[in-house]
Amino acid sequence: MAKEGKHYAKDSEVVEKLENIGKEILKQIESQKNPSYNIPIRTLGNIFFDQKSGTIKLGDKTSDRQFLNVAHSRKFMQTVLVAAEIRKVIEQKATVSIRDLYYALKHTIEGTQENTFEEQSESDPVIEDIEASLDLLREELHLAASAKGIIAGDVQLRDGSDSIDLTKMGSGGWSVPSNVEPENIEFKKVNAEYVLFIEKDAVWRRFNEDQYWKKHKCIILTGRGQPGRGERRLAQRFNKEYDLPLYVLTDADPWGMYIYSVIKQGSISLSYSEEKLATPKAKFLGLTTLDVEKFKIPKEVTIKLNALDVKRLKEMESYEWFQKKEWKHEFSNMKEKAVKLELEALSKKGIRFITEEYVPQKIKNEEFLP
Predict the structure, then answer these.
(1) Taking Cα atoms as reference points, which of 262, 234, 246, 256 lies closest to residue 319?
(2) 153 in Cβ contact with 131 (< 8 Å)
C-alpha cells in the first residue's frame, strides 16, 4: 500500500505564486519605487549539506534584481517575461519544453534593435531563478526536459488517460517522462522488493534481457548516464511511497560515484529543489575498486586513472557527504591502485556474471557503501 507522498503544488497554487510576482512589482511601481525581484543566490558559497534531511540545500542569501539598475534591467525584463509565459502555459493546460519557451519569448523589442533573448543560455538560468524563488520544481511550472531514462518491473501505472503495464514493454522498457508527479503518473500496482538504479543503458539492457527484475522481484531503472529529474524523482517516489530500498550500480570511477551522490543527496546545481528529488536512503551497491580482489576480477580489465579522474576524485574527497570511513577506504584504494573499472568489465567473468552472481551476492550480503 502506497504512503501519502509530499504535497506538490496544484496548478492554481503555482498560478497564484506567479501572479504574486506581478502584483508585487505593480505595487512597487505605484509606490514610485524601483521595481525589483528578490532571488536566492545560487552559488557554491550559498550551498550547504543539511544533515537532518540528508540533502544538499540552498542557503538563505538573496539578491535583488532591479529594473532601474543598468546591470540588472535586462535580466529583470527576462524574468518577468518568463514568469508571464509560464502562467499562460499553465492556464492553457499545456506542457512545453524549455526550448519551446525560449523560442516563444524571443523577439525584437519594439522601437529597438535588441532581442529579448539571444540564446537559450539566457533563458535557462532565469527559469532556475524562478524555480528557486518560488520553491517549485520545473515540472510544477509545466516545463519538460527531454526524456532519456527507461524502466522495467512488475509495475502498473496510469500515465494521463493511458494504463501502462511495465512487464509488457519488451526489450526497450518504458521511457520515463520528465514529469512523474502523482497528478501525471499514478501507481496502480507496485510488486517489488527494491529498486536497482543502473548507471548505463547497455548494462540495464543486460538486466532486462536476463529478466532480472522478474527473477528477483525488483524494479530496474536507468538514467543513461547522469540521470535527469524524471528518473531521480521516480526513484524517490518508489522509496518514499512504498518503502522500497534504492540500490545504485555505477562504474567504479569518480564520475559513476558522483552519479550515486546526485541520486542520494542531490547536485550542487539543483540545490534549491533537492528535497523533492534526492533519495537520502539510497545505498551504493558497486562497482568498487575493492571488488577487484573480492570477486577476483582480472586486473587486465582495469583502467588507469587519468589526470581528470584524479582531479575529480580530490574534489569528491572534500565533500562533507563523502566523509564516512567506508568511502575514505574506497577512495584511498582507488588512489593507491590508480585504477578504475567499468561495469562491463564484469563480463570478463562471464556475460551473465553481473546479473547472476555479482549483484545478487552483494544485495544478499548487504555489501553496500553508505
Answers:
(1) 262
(2) no
Q: Which residues on neighbouring strands pair with residue 222, listed in sequence order?
A: 150, 198
Mean pLDDT computed over every residue of the chain:
90
With CA atoms as reference, report the closest residue to 195 among 207, 184, 182, 183: 207
Tell me which of 8, 102, 103, 260 is the catalytic residue: 103
**Which residue, 308, 313, 252, 254, is CA-closest to 285?**
252
**Catalytic site residue 212?**
no
Reported CATH class of domain 150-364: alpha beta
* Domain locations in the chain as residue ranges: 11-144, 150-364
Quick: pLDDT tens for 123-181: 999 999 998 889 888 888 998 876 789 999 999 999 988 999 999 998 889 999 888 88
Q: Which CATH fold topology does 11-144 show?
A: Arc Repressor Mutant, subunit A (1.10.10)
CA distance 335 to 337: 6
Confidence of residue 253 (pLDDT cuts 50, 70, 90): very high
Whole-model pTM: value is: 0.84
Please check whether residue 357 is in contact with residue 346, taking contact to mean a CB–CB distance below 8 angstroms: no
Q: What are the CA-CA distances from residue 31 to residues 24, 65, 172, 260 (Å)?
A: 11, 18, 59, 50
Helix (H) or strand (E) holding 101: helix 98-105
Closest CA to 328 of 366, 293, 370: 370
